[in-house]
Structures are given as structure tokens and as C-alpha cells.
Prior knowledge:
Strand content: 5-15%
Mean pLDDT: 84
CATH class of the largest domain: Mainly Alpha
CATH topology of the largest domain: Rhopdopsin 7-helix transmembrane proteins
Shape: elongated
Helix content: 55-70%
Radius of gyration: 39 Å
Number of domains: 3
Amino acid sequence: MLENLDSIAFLFTTQAIVFAILSFVFFMYFRAFSRDYVKYWLFSLSALSCYYASGAMLQGNDSDFFTRAIALFYAQVQQSAFYLFLVLLLLGLYSAKKQKQVNVTVSIPACSAAIILGVTAATLYAFNENNSNHYFYLNVGLQSFVFSCAFLTASFTLYRDKTPHFSSQILLGYCLILGLRYSLHFFISILAYSEPWFNQLQMFLLYFDVGAHSVLGFILLIWMQGVERHVAVHAISKAQYLGKHDSLTGALNREQVMAKLSEAMIFADEKKYQLAIFLIDIKQFKFINDSYGLKTGDHILGEIAQRLNNSILSPKAVGRLSGDSFMFVIESSQPAFIERVPEHLHQLIKQVFHFNNQDIHIQASVGYCTYPADGDNAEDLLHNANLALHHAETNNIATTVFESGLQAEGRRLLLVEKALKAALANDEFVLYYQPQLNLFTNRLEGVEALVRWQHPEKGLLPPADFLADIDALNMNSEFDNYILTKACQANARWHQKYKRRVTIAVNITAIEFQDPQLVANIQSLILTYNLQPRYLELEITENVVMTDINTAMNTIVSLQNMGIKVSIDDFGTGYSSLAYLRKLPIDKIKIDRSFINEVASNDSDMTIVKSMIDLSHGLGKRVLAEGVETVEQLNVLRNLGCDAVQGYFINKPLPEEKLAHYLVRKSDKKGSLKKE
């Protein structure tokens, strides 16, 4: 008997060392790949190592040397470690199947329950020899019941897995065998505990469990290899899918939709059909993102792609070209049918979108061309459809079909782009400065920088002759940086030459204001020209802010922290004037000239302007009125408490040499502003 106990103690000690080594292997794997399920299995095997180590100590127990209290401690450790082994094994299996970490609100209570159960089972009846059968059922019978339920549930879960890999099937068989083993032992222990052969069965199962646990360690190693291979195959499949499809909407990406278009052109030639290539752009989609949230915007884009794909017209290709722009390609032998397709597309987009208990209505612009009439290759067709779409958006019309005149407009823009870039390189743009009068001090408060183009052939051109082309050519950012640089250079010159600092207000477009580099660029200009930030003011419109309100807020705060002023230009003409004024951390608002034109003769306009001034002052913001052209307007604004004014009555925009002459006069003599 003693030799048998010694052999079991040696076996348990060996197992403890084996599982400690396996735990170390899993630890190295976890440190290399950081898989969450490996972490749980690492701790599970460590618990199994503790189970065998404490079991070895109990098998080697000598009543002359060990006290019964120490034996009880080892029994508590053994029971707790075995339950922990099971819990951590199942948590790792769940994490491996779901590819995510188990929430600590689940893992910690589960592990705590395992420890409490093990300690309780080992402690109750430990010192009462008359209730040895109760002690057996708590330590062995209960354990068999719990383990049978756990392993059979795990095998059933693995069986229902829709995407099993080979190692998963091996683990399924293992869990099923262990589940049956513990189930049979549980029922046999109830029926035959007192039978003489039951001890031999216990000894057989002890060696069986040692072998089964050893096999488990290697099954888990095989599982890790199988899972990694499965993950790699899935990643390759996903990469191949994403290589052809847009990840957000599931529609074809630009490259694939263009390939599909090329294929459709070949089939159309064979069947003598026409192709129609439609480009669809969602109106004011940034507003939807800002108002309802990015998640809502993503949902709408996905549903648009689904509606287009499921269209009764059976499109040859549906793709997402950019943020809110889609391509829709159909074939037909009837030109009249193609002409009716845009209305169908508008109806698809106009259908209400339901998301998060909200009903959202949107509209789209559509531009299209046909093959073979409007091009003989996919890129030309896309270009021509895009010209039609741009025309629809620019002119605020629902649908535009490509015409040769649009191509001429495209060629004109190419020439204009070349001329604009040459003008920037040759420094042909000049700044004019319109003075702003402070109504309380009756002195110059600042100037607004207004750009003109000194064209080498056409002479001095006003902004209306080129700003629209700059916007159409997406040159806003480059142009804004150019104007900012010239304004900073002028401010530095005035200080050096006339010893005067004058605040210069510069208009900034939406694209530039959303540029993450804007703040850094302005910091660089301030350092380069040794400017005081408070003498630079940036003017933006309400719509610029509403294009991306969160980005705008962050940018305004960053600029103000630098000491730069930010004002709202053309106030009152945006789509959310008063509602968002209290949220905008701006310094000043500029009331649009449309409210000033009849402020001296129209009571309604006067009431509106008074409300704007009172509201702005109540929010701690200064007010400047634009477009003041008569003394009556000036007097009314002064009486209403307006802080400053700007307009032709004060002075027209002045070239730098005339403003410089005025600055010289003001440096010598204090007085009111007078026209030049």
C-alpha cells in the first residue's frame, strides 16, 4: 500500500512539473501574440499544476509529521485549484470562440465561486470520521457532477459551432469523453459507493485522469495552432473581400466598380445595348453626421448601398466611389427608359431612413452619361458623369445629363487652374483693406483683408471673377494659406515702418478651417513674422462651423488659447444662427449686410438687428455690422449699441499704399475715420 502511495505521489509530482512547463510554454506564446484565450488557458494549466502538487503532498502525508490542519490546507488548495482549472479552461474556450476578452464582471465572480466551492467542499466533514461518506460526496461526487455538466455543455457548444476547425473537433471529442466519464462516475458513486470493487474503480479513474489531463495540454497546443491558422485564413478572405468591396457599405470599391463597368461595356457591345453610368451624391451629408452622429451616417450609407443593389432595375454594378458618392450602372436598349432612371434613383434616396427611433429624410444630386455616346473607356465615362454631377450640385438641380458643353467647361477649368497656379507663383494677388470703425471710440478698430487679382492681361479682377473657380478646383486650402501669409507679412511691415499694430481679419473657407494643420500653420506664421496673435482675426461663416461642428469647436478653442480672435461672418444667413450662437466660443459676430440695408427705414429689420445685438451682448460677444452705406444706418446702429461697423460709408476697401497713408495720418493726429 505504501509503495502504491509513493508511486501516486511520484506521478502527481511529475504531472505538476509537466503542467508547470506547459504553463510556461503558454506564457511565452501569450507574450508573443497577446491572445486573450491563451491567458486563461495559461492560468488554467497553472491551476492544474497546483492541483497535482497539493495532491502529491497529500499522498505523501505522514501522520507523525504532518498535522491534520496542514493536510486540510492541502486538500483545500487541491479542490480549489481543480475547480479553478475547469472555470479558466471554459473561459478560455469562450474567449477563443468569440475572439474577445471575457468581461471581468464574469471572470472574477466565476473564479471566486470556484475557490469558495473548493474550500467549502474540502472543509466540511474534514474532521468527522463518522461522516466519511458525506465527505466523499462533497469532494468527489459533487466534483463529478459539476465537471460532467461543464464538459457536456462545452461539447454541445462546440458541436453547434458553424465554422469548426480540426482542432475544435478534437476538443469536442475530448470534452464529450470527459463529460461521459464524470457522469458515469457520479451515478456509480451513488449506487455502488460501498461495493468492494469501487476502490479499484477509483484507482483506475485516477490514472485515467492523469492521462486525460496530459492529453488535454497537447490538445490545447493543437487548438492554438488550429485557431491561428483559422484566423489567418479568415483574415486572408476578409482582405480579399475588402480588396473588392467598401468596408462600410459592402458595395464595390472604386477599383472594382470600374472593372465591372469595363466588363459591362463589352457585353453591351455584344448585345447592342446602351449603358448608363449614374453618379449619386448625397446632399448635406456632413450635416447629417453632425446632427445625428457618425453611427447614424454610417447606417444611412449602408442602407443606400443596399437599396441601390436591390433596385428592381437589376444594376450591372453598384459601387461607392468616396464618402457619400455612389456609382450605379444599368444597361438598356431604350433611351427613353434611361431618361426615367434618375427619378427612380431619387425615389430610392427619398424614402425615409429609420434609425434609433429617428426618421431621417435626405436628398441627392445625380449626374449621368451613356455608353457608347459619351465615351469609349471607363475612365472617360466616369469623368463625364462626374462633370454632369458637378453641374447638378453647382446649380442646385436634381439631375444633369452629360452634354458636350460640360466638357468644354471642364477644359475651361483646366485653363483657369493653370492661370491660378501661375498667379500664385507670380504673386499676382493683392490685398485690399476695408477699415472697421469702433463706434465707442470713433477710431480704427481693424481692417478686413479682401483679395483682388492683378491679372497681367485683364487688369484688376474682383473676387467674384475667380473665387468660384478656386472652389470648383478645390484650391481653397492653398489659396487661404496664401492670403494668411500675405496678411501676416503686411502686419509685420506696418509695425516695422509705421510702429502701428492693426488687427487684420481674414476670411477662412470650410476646407481650410477643418484642416488639422491650420493651427500649426498659423503658429508658424506668427513666429516667422513676430506677430502678436491678438492682431490676427479669422472670419468664418456659420455654415463653415456646421459642416463639422465638433472639429470647428476644437479649432476655435485652440486658436483662442493662442490669443487669435475668431468671428462669425455673414451672421443671420446660416441655417442655425441663434440656436448655435450660445455654443460657439467666438469673440465677435458680423451681422450680414442684408439686415443692414433697410435697418433705418424698416421696423422689422431694426427689431431683428436689435435682437441680434442684445443676444450677442448677453452672451459676451461683440457685434460688428457690415454694409453700412448711409449716415442714417450708422446712427441707428450706434443707438442700438452696436460695437463696430464696416461699409462704404466708413471707407471702401483700400489698397495698401492708401491705407498706409491713412496710418501715417493717424499716427500723428487722433480723430475720426474719414473717407479716402
